[in-house]
Each structure stands twice: as structure tokens, then as C-alpha cells.
Design brief:
301 residues; alpha/beta; Chemotaxis Receptor Methyltransferase Cher, domain 1; Rossmann fold; 2 domains; 3-stranded antiparallel sheet; 11 helices; 42% helix; globular; binds S-adenosylmethionine
Length: 301
């Protein structure tokens, strides 16, 4: 976890969460209105069985805005003059930002030893030194910083001769602010090899600062994956990471986002998704490459 404070998500991560105010209960009608609004604005789909999520996560918004019930909050989101300023706050509380450095090591091993190495060789053969990676749904930055570390590990002293950019986007402004700071606790490093920690972080007491040489490779910025126009503006990529993000979308939204990734990828580029996610019923556009520990989704060259 980055050193980033977020309204309580007691339902997901009870560690460190303060007790949630349970004064207001969401009615079925209010739930449907809020669920549809959230879906419309972000593509995040909250199933009926997770109604408690709306109650838990939005309770503090009601409190802060001094609203009596969820119906009033819905009205606020739709019609209040303050609705524009409220939307980012809504995004912050409804998103799940769980992440860590070196998340899913078997997949990263495939990335480092197969995908990245082959891509770099291909670029060298084409006399190009330009590499673009996109981390879509980057949360507090652990994923793009991990990519930056892997690039340093692979390219070593050759790295300065390359033109590399990792575009890292998220819906939540709060997580992006934390990502830009690059300050973490040891919890965020729980799956990171010790030698990597020693090489890429400066430790001050209990706090870890990522090195500037990693920050230089990354461009953090906001994006809403449900906004096709915004996605079209992202520079075309050789590799896209979108891990543990589409899990929050319904199939229609998954299709729309994956289609945008396909369009964004350069010929022969590839997409990596989370280990519990699948494109099986979503698209046949990519060629799946099966490796130990992961599937790499390849766009035709
Ligand atoms: C569980 S985290 C995954 C972080 C990282 N990719 C990983 O695998 O460790 C999911 C992230 O997706 C972001 N997200 C959810 N819906 C989004 C949307 N519509 N547009 C952009 N980001 C979104 C959330 O804000 C959250 O930070």
C-alpha cells in the first residue's frame, strides 16, 4: 500500500480501516439509481449482491455533504451545482486500489524474459530505440514502477540510449497523487525481491522512496477507461498492462475497453491482464500465447 489515505473500505481491507458510519441504509431504488450512475460514469458495475459496498463506501460522502439518505446523494450527483467536484470524490471511494510492487511474479518473469526481451530485439533489428508501455489502471504506482525497474534490470547501461515512456493512468486522482510522490511502506514491497528493494529504493526509517531514475520513465495522468475519446488520445503502445481492472466491469464495458486497447497497440504488440481475468468470452481479436503462469494476448504483426 502506498502512503495514501482513503475513506474506509472495511468490506475489502479491514486493516487500518476506521469504523464505517452505518446510519443510512440504501433502499433498492436508491441502490439501482446509484449503481446505474456509477456504471454510466466509470464502467464499474456493482452487482446486487454487493449492495453493502455502496452503503459502506458512500457513507462518508453523505456525512461530509450533510445529506440524510442515499436518494439525496443521488440527486446531488445528478443536479447539484457541486456535482462536478463530487465526481472525483465518488471515484475515489468506489474504486478498489489494491496493488503491490512485483505483483504476480510468474507473469512478470514471462514479461521480463520473453515479452520485453523479444520486443527490444525486434526494435533493435528495426533500428528503432523507441518503446512505449501503458499501465492502464495503475493505482498508486507500484505497477508502472515495477515496469521501470524491470526495464533497468534488462537494459542496464544501455537504458539511456533508449527513448522509453511508461504511460500510467487511473480514474482516481488520489491514487495518482500518491503514485507521483513515490513513497511507500514495506507492505507495498511484500512480493518484491530484496536485491530489487536495495537497488531502487532509498529507505528512510520505515519509509521507502523510489529512485528518480524510475520516475523519469513514467508519465502519470488521469483517464476514464469508459471514455473512448480519451483512450484514443493515448500514444500507441508496444505493450499494455491492464491488470485487475476489467474485473470491475461488465462484459459490454470489458469489450469496449479491450477493443480500445487493441486499436492502441502497435502491430505485434501485446496485452497483459490480471491472473483472475480472461478475454475468453470478450474477444477473439488477439492471439493468446500460453506461458507458464500467464497468457500473453498478441495483436497480429
Ligand atoms: C485493483 S487496482 C489494480 C492496480 C494494478 N493494475 C495492479 O494490478 O496491481 C484497479 C485500479 O483500476 C482503476 N480503475 C477502475 N475503474 C477505472 C476506470 N474506469 N478508468 C481508469 N481506471 C479505473 C482503479 O482506480 C484502481 O486503481
Amino acid at each position: 500500500m502506498a502512503l495514501f489515505t482513503k475513506p474506509p473500505q472495511a468490506d475489502i481491507n479491514p486493516l487500518g480501516a476506521s469504523p464505517v458510519s452505518r446510519t443510512a441504509k440504501v433502499s433498492n431504488e436508491e441502490f439501482t439509481q446509484l449503481r446505474d450512475f456509477i456504471y454510466e460514469q466509470s464502467g464499474i458495475y456493482i452487482a446486487e449482491a454487493r449492495k453493502y459496498l455502496v452503503e459502506n463506501r458512500l457513507a462518508n460522502r453523505l456525512k461530509e455533504l450533510n445529506l440524510k439518505n442515499f436518494g439525496e446523494y443521488y440527486y446531488y450527483l445528478r443536479f447539484d451545482p457541486g456535482r462536478r467536484a463530487e465526481l472525483p470524490k465518488l471515484f475515489e471511494v468506489i474504486t478498489t486500489n489494491e496493488t503491490s510492487f512485483y505483483r504476480n511474479p510468474p507473469q512478470l518473469k514471462v514479461f521480463q524474459e520473453k515479452v520485453l526481451t523479444a520486443e527490444l530485439d525486434k526494435l533493435r533489428a528495426a533500428k528503432s530505440r523507441k518503446l512505449r508501455i501503458w499501465s492502464a489502471g495503475c493505482s498508486t504506482g507500484e505497477e508502472p514502477y515495477t515496469m521501470a525497474m524491470i526495464l533497468h534490470e534488462v537494459l542496464k547501461t544501455e537504458l539511456p540510449t533508449w527513448d522509453i515512456k511508461i504511460t500510467a493512468n487511473d480514474l482516481s486522482e488520489g491514487v495518482l497523487a500518491a503514485a507521483r510522490k513515490g513513497i511507500y511502506s514495506d507492505y507495498a514491497l511484500r512480493t518484491t525481491p530484496k536485491e530489487i528493494i536495495d537497488r531502487y529504493f532509498k529507505k528512510e526509517g520505515e519509509i521507502y522512496h523510489v529512485e528518480p531514475r524510475l520516475k523519469h520513465l513514467i508519465s502519470f495522468g488521469p483517464i476514464n477507461l469508459s471514455d473512448k475519446t480519451m483512450l484514443r488520445r493515448v500514444e500507441r503502445s508496444h505493450i499494455i498492462f491492464c491488470r485487475n481492472v476489467i474485473i470491475y466491469f461488465d462484459d459490454d464495458m470489458k469489450r469496449q475497453v479491450i477493443e480500445s486497447f487493441y486499436d492502441n497497440l502497435l502491430p505485434g504488440g501485446c496485452l497483459l491482464i490480471g491472473h483472475s481475468e480472461s478475454l475468453h468470452s470478450i474477444t477473439r481479436a488477439f492471439k493468446p500465447e500460453h506461458h507458464v503462469g500467464t497468457i500473453v494476448y498478441r495483436k497480429e504483426a
